[in-house]
Here is the input.
Amino acid sequence: MTAKPADPPPYYRRHVFCCTNVRPQGHPRGCCSSKGSVKLRNHMKARAKELGLDDVRINIAGCLDRCELGPNMVIYPEGVWYSYSTIEDVEEILQTHLLKGGRVERLRLRPEDGPERD
Here is the structure.
């Protein structure tokens, strides 16, 4: 049996996907964009740069399918999900998770949170 080649090292230490999806006004699930996700994501990206987090990528994402709980983000490689709504929440995620490697439990989403998956 041939050995499977090792995966290359990750290009980024952490990869953050912030939902900025837009749904029509009045959609029953809502959308992250109408809850301020674009402004919050832009702040997070600027602050990450100020903090010297060159090995962390803050990206815009389309729908992450947890619209009712948004704005939300997921951080890889850990697969940790957060629901956040303020600049202070973003700062706490930056400081606690991205700088110190901890978790912001009060903002954390678990698999059982949100709509059932199809």
The mean pLDDT is 92. The first helix runs from residue 37 to 50.
